[in-house]
Design goal:
It is a single chain. This protein is α+β, with helices and mostly antiparallel strands and 333 residues long. It has 3 domains: 3-62, no CATH class; 67-116 and 176-322, Hypothetical upf0131 protein ytfp; 125-164. The protein has helices at residues 3-12, 14-28, 37-62, 80-86, 122-132, 134-148, 154-161, 188-198, 221-226, 270-282, 287-294, 311-322, and strands spanning 67-72, 93-99, 101-106, 108-113, 178-187, 205-213, 234-240. The strands form 2 sheets. Strands 1-5-2-6-7 form a 5-stranded antiparallel sheet. A hairpin with a 1-residue loop joins strand 3 and strand 4 (108-113). The longest helix has 26 residues, at 37-62.
Length: 333
């Protein structure tokens, strides 16, 4: 049952539970041949009180716990990270794609919303013109009728052609950018634990988003899910930069492309990026996305103990200590 529906059911079912329990309690408080009227009244009062208490307790016990959908990326595309490093038992996880976001690095990974282009075509401009001056539209239509003897059908043809334009649902992603990751179902305590271990609100901040779940095939199942009319997005939360970068994007018709100092990307370690690539391979993320991950440059390090980075060895030690396999909770393993 959907979470909202379950909560609504719990609210509407409280009264019947209380009434049923009260009836049972009053029944056992009913008088027998040796029970006086005053004693019966006292028993009824006690029965009502017990019934209300038990009924409310039963409602709270049966009411579903609040759950959160968390879209994880980076090393969180490997569920053993959640179990071994955060002590969260994963009950449900599935591959998903987040449209119109991009994966960026400042040593650690972040996802960042990408500005989407504003659609503009002749029809939208015509609509704006008609909204401002209806008379010009009507006079134009009259000219067509005078010239041809009939109203011009070309407008109707254009209207039909525009069914794939701004009037219809546009193909996702609008920006051409996507991030693949996992959607986890977490309890309230587990959700709070993810936030604290990730450094919210200083290292990251929570952002509400819509993601599209899919079953990976290593080809383009994720991309197909974005525009499948039967696919429904899931409301989830993901982690983004604590402060939006203050940058100037290249303006149309200019060469301006100035980035501020707080928008400088820092390449990830080879070890960290290796975990992301491994998770993408195991979950069979789209091939185009896996290919994109291979183009990311890694940072050079002078660390003698961990020349490729500490992230991979840390997870490997945690998995060994807890007896957790790398393929824990991954589809097909």
């Amino acid at each position: 049952m959907h979470r909202d529906g379950a909560e609504r059911f719990a609210r509407t079912s409280r009264f019947p539970w209380v009434v049923a329990t009260m009836v049972v309690a009053i029944y056992f408080a009913a008088p027998n041949s040796s029970t006086s009227t005053s004693t019966y009244s006292d028993n009824v009062g006690v029965g009502i009180g017990i019934g209300i208490g038990i009924g409310i307790g039963a409602v709270h016990a049966l009411a579903p716990a609040k759950v959160y959908r968390y879209f994880g990326y980076g090393s969180n595309v490997i569920p053993s990270t959640m179990k071994t490093l955060r002590q969260i038992e994963v009950r449900e996880a599935t591959a998903a794609v987040l449209p119109d976001y991009e994966l960026v690095f400042r040593s650690a990974a972040f996802v960042r919303p990408v500005p989407t282009p504003v659609p503009s075509n002749n029809r939208s401009e015509k609509a704006n013109g008609n909204a401002n001056d209806d008379s010009s539209s009507s006079s134009s239509d009259e000219k067509k009728k005078d010239t041809d003897g009939n109203s011009d059908d070309s407008d109707n043809d254009n209207d039909n052609d525009d069914s794939n334009g701004v009037a219809a649902k546009q193909a996702l992603p609008l920006s051409g950018k996507v991030v693949h990751g996992l959607v986890y179902t977490l309890t309230e305590d587990e959700f709070a634990k993810v936030g604290s271990t990730e450094g919210v609100p200083f290292g990251y901040r929570w952002q509400s988003c819509l993601v599209y779940p899919y079953r990976g095939d290593g080809k383009q199942a994720g991309g197909d899910s974005l525009n499948d009319p039967n696919a429904l997005p899931i409301q989830a939360y993901t982690l983004v930069e604590p402060n939006a970068p203050n940058r100037t994007r290249k303006q149309k018709g200019t060469n301006t492309d100035a980035n501020s100092s707080n928008d400088v990307e820092i390449p990830p370690s080879a070890s960290y990026l290796g975990l992301i690539r491994e998770g993408a391979r195991l979950w069979k993320f789209d091939k185009s996305y896996q290919d994109e991950l291979t183009t990311i440059q890694v940072a050079k390090t002078n660390n003698i103990l961990f020349p490729d980075g500490w992230e991979g060895p840390t997870l490997q030690l945690a998995e060994k200590a807890t007896g957790t396999k790398r393929t824990y909770m991954i589809d097909g393993y």
